[in-house]
Amino acid sequence: MLDEHYTVEVAGIRRDLPLMAIKPGVRIAILNILGDAEFVNAACTQLAGKLRDRAIDVLVTAEAKSIPLAHMLSTELGLPYIVLRKTYKPYMGDALQSETLSITTGKPQTLFLDEKDRQQVAGKKVAIIDDVISTGSTLQGMRLIMRKAQAAVVAEAAIFTEGDRAQWHDIVSLGHLPVWVDD
To answer: What CA–CA distance (Å, rounded) separates 160 from 175?
Structure first.
């Protein structure tokens, strides 16, 4: 389906997102910000403006595609960020974990909060950052780990939300992506 695209624009930067079938009769637009510094910088400037008035101590994101977004927001807002990993490594010590279901892979994934990062979020106000929030599974996994780490989630932000989930009204975002369902 690489010949079909959905065009988005953020702060004057346009991108044609390829449509991908995630199951028979259902397609989504794929945003891949890895290596796209121009788009990430534009998105960060816009998101930072929407987050600046929030009382945030730490930014939290999940590995991997949203790492450039969290990094640039960290720079823009002057805040530290941590990354929830998708594989456990021995150096992570007594890591917290939560399982999610990825819309793009259709498979369960586990998120891990490194023991050293637990100390960085405990008792802090965190903002959860993602590139696209679609089903909410990754978002819920990140929320659960933050609750286990005794952090308060004070904001949830993404470049785009996706689909028709009612809870997206609380997400700080720059736009919304449709889901295409064949009749």
So the answer is: 5
Q: Provide the domain limits for residue 130.
A: 40-175
Q: At 99, which helix (H) or strand (E)?
A: strand 96-101
CA angle 99, 102, 104 (to 5 degrees): 165
Pick from 12, 135, 127, 124: nearest CA to 76: 127
Q: Is 73 exposed, middle or buried (0-12, 13-18, 19+ CB in 10 A)?
A: buried
CATH code at 148? 3.40.50.2020
Residue 138 counted as domain residue: yes
Query: What is the total count of domains within the chain?
Result: 1
Confirm if 153 and 146 have CB atoms less than 8 A apart.
yes
Q: Checking DSSP bridges between strand 81-84 and strand 58-62, what pairing results, if any? A: parallel
Reported as a single tens digit per residue, the pLDDT across 48-63 is 999 999 999 999 999 8
- The model's pLDDT over 93-140, given as tens digits with 9 standing for 90+, comes to 888 988 876 655 667 788 999 999 999 999 999 999 999 988 788 888
Please name the residues in contact with 49: beta carbons below 8 A apart, sequence gap of 6 or more. Answer: none
